[in-house]
Specification:
Number of domains of chain A: 2
Shape of chain B: elongated
Oligomer: heterodimer
CATH class of the largest domain in chain A: Alpha Beta
Number of strands of chain A: 7
Number of helices of chain B: 5
Structural class of chain B: alpha+beta
CATH topology of the largest domain in chain A: 60s Ribosomal Protein L30, Chain: A
Order of helices and strands of chain A: EHHHHEEEHEHEHE
Shape of chain A: elongated
Helix content of chain B: 10-25%
CATH architecture of the largest domain in chain B: 6 Propeller
Distance between the termini of chain B: 31 Å
CATH superfamily of the largest domain in chain A: OmpA-like domain
Helix content of chain A: 40-55%
CATH topology of the largest domain in chain B: Neuraminidase
Strand content of chain A: 5-15%
Radius of gyration of chain A: 26 Å
Largest interface: A-B, 88 and 114 residues
CATH class of the largest domain in chain B: Mainly Beta
Chain lengths: ~260, ~450
């Protein structure tokens, strides 16, 4: 991907220059082999995987949509894969990282399910400024579930509508027309494999592309509120092709203005 | 140059290491090589082995920090010795300019010489710099003295701002750290002509169980304060001139806010995206991403009212992630107008747009160094791994890789003096903030506990 004009610098590029007699070569080889031998056992890796799984299971029960839990699940899956590939040291390290993450959730939740009372309001004063183009300024809003409206999915890095997508959008259109007094939030989402800003822009583009479809189908634009959510609210926590597919989507919510 | 002479001396002295230390170094290397990384070692020369992990770009200085001396009558029951020693060591390491002399090489009983070093002993131990510290606990305060000695020149170095005078400090870890940092900043100035970054702050997002908060992290990583609590998703902080601009879903959509002195102001809540704010170096303009006209485009806003002053891009592509050149005349940004997201540069009035990056298919999150010489950015490879690169905006063929094979490394942000970069990395399994020297030579973890992303070093 990068041509030879780049100078490649290793992150651990410490200049270590040590001069020593030749007989130490033999000694160093002995160290290398003994260290390698000591590193390649399956048993500690298996034990670590088992321990990690038990922590994960205890946390899963709490039903938390926790970032660390997601990372722990991913990390555990990777560890399992490495183990299957007989890369025991890496598997053990990966499983250990997963356990640490799962433990973090366990510590934070202290075994209580995640439906907990909301945190107290911030001790901050909020000021709203007049804007030059008040027509563009949006009133604060919240979203409600719109169970009747179906989610549509997108290709990788794409915001174009496929024939399947259009079919689903048309099914939703009937409901939208039958409920003229509702405002709809069109929520764009991405899979996790991008930078935060780009994902937000891409999810905004997906939302806009659906808004455009309904606008041309005659739905009043003021009823449609596009919101790009990037990859902040994934449908699937899986980091594989299927997980990514499920996350590249537009969901529909009912918009409720808040005072 | 003085520094070059010093470096050569350091190398000469290193070759005089004792047998036991070579053995120790070798053992460390073999363990590292066999269990963690594969290091390419080249064996050459006829009378020995030369193990060269990589070539250095940054001159580093060997420095010693013997244990602080308690010169008072009160016993150190609060661990002040460790606080002083720990802060000195951590900040010297974090700066990336120093190698700490191994304790085993110290002269026997350094405390016996008091605050007047026997230079020949330290010279033979192989150090160039020596920091001596002493304290006397007096009630709820300590009288602390920190001194830097130039071992080569056999004399004390007089530092600016009287940081090496005896100073009375409250017995509060924060106050003690702050004093040590003022001292270390001057030590760094002595060796590199520019003071260190201690005392500056980094804004970042911290992911928690219930949302994403905006936090401020001190540049030594020891102190994190929550500025905007994560009951909703708060993102993409930009810390400039004491104010944090950020994007939040706190009132529904991705809207732009700023916060200063505990007050939160809504700056832009136009339809669609309101994000990616960057304040111009003179503080008079805010460049942001808005999508209320359809696609994501860049606009200039009045930073205190949110009023639109000018539209800078007008393209159906995604235009995001603006960053100012230090003279305020240009803006670098990301656009996928030619197919893939790449770095572009334009004049600050939106004219003369030209593409900067051609290597790679996914180049993002640029940050223009306050020195002006480099733009750091994130690049994603074909395996969806993110790493940090720099490019010279004047000569875009000069691309340099700073991270490799260490998890995902993203969202670089330069220190106010442009010599260091803070970024997020998943190399330990969690997302933490790291600081590296501008050439990637030294990389040190800053935070603990995980969940830290999108840092913005305040300037």
């Amino acid at each position: 991907m990068y041509n030879s004009k780049q100078s490649v610098i290793s992150p651990k590029n410490q200049a270590i220059i040590i001069t020593m007699p030749k007989q130490l070569v033999v000694l160093s080889l002995v160290f290398i082999f003994s260290a390698l031998y000591g590193c390649s056992s399956a048993r500690p890796a298996k034990d670590e995987l088992t321990k990690t799984m038990s922590v994960l299971e205890s946390v899963r029960k709490l039903g938390c949509a926790h970032d660390s839990l997601k990372l722990a699940e991913d990390s555990y899956a990777k560890a399992q894969k490495l183990f299957d590939e007989k890369k025991y040291d890496e598997a053990r390290a990966q499983a250990s990282a997963a356990r640490e993450l799962a433990q973090e959730v366990a510590d934070e939740t202290q075994g209580k399910p995640c439906e907990v009372p909301p945190e107290p309001e911030e001790q901050t004063q909020e000021v709203e400024l007049p804007t030059d183009d008040d027509a563009q300024a949006i009133e604060p809003f919240e979203s409600l579930d719109a169970g009747e409206l179906k989610t549509v999915y997108f290709g990788f890095d794409a915001s174009s509508l496929t024939s399947d997508t259009i079919e689903t959008l048309n099914e939703n259109l009937a409901w939208i027309r039958e409920h003229p007094d509702t405002d709809i939030i069109i929520e764009g989402h991405c899979d996790s494999r991008g930078t935060m800003e780009y994902n937000m822009a891409l999810s905004d583009r997906r939302a806009k592309s659906v808004v455009g479809f309904y606008k041309s189908a005659g739905v009043e634009e003021r009823r449609l509120e596009p919101v790009g959510l990037g990859s902040h609210d994934p449908e699937s926590l899986r980091e594989d092709a299927e997980g990514h597919r499920l996350n590249r989507r537009v969901e529909f919510k009912l918009k409720v203005n808040v005072p | 140059m003085k520094t070059i002479t010093r470096y050569k001396m350091q190398q000469t002295r290193k070759s005089q290491l004792t047998f036991s230390n070579i053995l120790k170094a070798l053992l460390t290397l073999t363990i590292t090589a066999s269990c963690l990384y594969s290091i390419t070692a080249s064996a050459q020369e006829t009378d020995g082995i030369k193990v060269e992990v990589n070539a250095s770009q940054v001159t580093r200085f060997v420095i010693a920090t013997p244990k602080a001396l308690n010169v008072g009558t009160a016993l150190d029951t609060i661990g002040l010795t460790e606080q002083l020693g720990g802060t000195l060591e951590q900040s010297l390491k974090l700066s990336g300019y120093f190698d700490l002399l191994e304790r085993e090489l110290y002269p026997a009983d350094p405390s016996s010489e008091g605050m007047s070093p026997k230079f020949v002993n330290w010279f033979n131990a192989g150090t160039q710099g020596l920091i001596k510290s002493s304290f006397a606990i007096e009630g709820n305060k300590a009288r602390v003295t920190l001194k830097l000695f130039d071992v080569d020149e056999k004399k004390q170095v007089k530092l600016a701002d009287n940081v090496d005078e005896a100073t009375s400090i409250a017995l509060d870890p924060k106050a003690i750290r702050a004093h040590v940092h003022r001292f270390i900043n001057q030590v760094i100035k002595f060796y590199t002509n520019t003071p260190g970054f201690f005392g500056t702050q980094i804004a970042a997002v911290r992911k928690g169980a219930r949302g994403k908060s905006i936090v401020l992290v001190s540049a030594d990583g020891r102190n994190t304060t929550t500025v905007v609590k994560g009951t909703k998703t708060n993102l993409l902080p930009h810390l400039a001139k004491g104010e944090i601009f950020f994007t939040s879903y706190r009132d529904g959509g991705p809207h732009l806010f700023s916060t200063k002195n505990g007050k939160i102001t809504r700056l832009s809540a136009r339809r669609g995206l309101n994000m990616g704010a960057a304040l111009s170096p003179d503080g008079r303009l805010l460049v942001v991403v808005l999508s209320y006209q359809g696609s994501s485009d860049l606009y200039l806003l009045n930073p205190s009212t949110g009023e639109i002053l000018r539209r800078l891009t007008r393209h159906k592509s995604i235009d995001i992630s603006p960053t100012w050149s230090p003279d305020g005349k240009q803006i670098a940004f990301v656009s996928d107008r030619e197919g893939s997201p790449q770095l572009w540069v334009m004049n600050a009035d939106g004219s003369n747009k030209r593409r900067l990056t051609y290597q790679g298919k996914y180049n993002q999150s640029p940050d223009w160094s306050p020195k002006g010489d480099l733009i750091a950015y994130t690049s994603r490879d074909e395996n969806f791994v993110f790493d940090i690169f720099t490019i010279d905006p004047k000569d875009p063929t000069q691309v340099r890789r700073l991270t490799q094979n260490q998890g995902n490394n993203e969202e670089p942000s330069f220190s106010p003096d442009g010599r260091h970069i803070v970024f997020s990395s998943t190399r330990t399994g969690r997302s933490e903030l790291y600081i590296m020297t501008g050439d990637g030579f030294t990389q040190q973890r800053l935070t603990q506990g995980g969940g830290y992303i999108t840092p913005s070093w305040g300037r």
